[in-house]
């Protein structure tokens, strides 16, 4: 799930099973006319992905509230998609709550860090 309630999904790190369904989904995310309007926007892949999942009937928006930090379920599932709560799959926070993948995305220079140093801090805090 995304870090804010403004968006359902965070597309920073994804696990995708190779199948006809996922190949068609990603083709539509990148090439469908209904996705192109997002291509010039910030975080366009997240918006295009949500649009295509909705068009395919995955119905993620029916989980209300959606985000676990806002009282929604920890795990949101549909026929082909499973959305995990923040930190369960990936995070870019240096607070030691990373359970699987540290994703060094973001503007680390504004915090006086490089991505390499941020990764080192994340590894030290994870033990």
Automatic annotation (TrEMBL):
This is Uncharacterized protein.
């Amino acid at each position: 799930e995304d870090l804010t309630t403004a968006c359902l999904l965070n597309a920073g790190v994804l696990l995708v099973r190779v199948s006809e369904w996922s190949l068609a989904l990603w083709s539509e995310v990148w090439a469908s006319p209904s996705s192109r309007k997002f291509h010039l926007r910030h975080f366009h892949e997240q918006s295009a992905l949500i649009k295509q999942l909705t068009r395919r009937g995955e119905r993620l928006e029916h989980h209300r509230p959606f985000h676990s930090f806002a009282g929604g379920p920890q795990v949101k599932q549909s026929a082909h998609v499973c959305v995990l709560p923040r930190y369960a799959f990936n995070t870019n926070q240096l607070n030691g709550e990373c359970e699987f993948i540290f994703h060094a995305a973001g503007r680390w220079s504004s915090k006086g860090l490089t991505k390499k140093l941020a990764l080192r801090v994340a590894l030290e805090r994870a033990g």
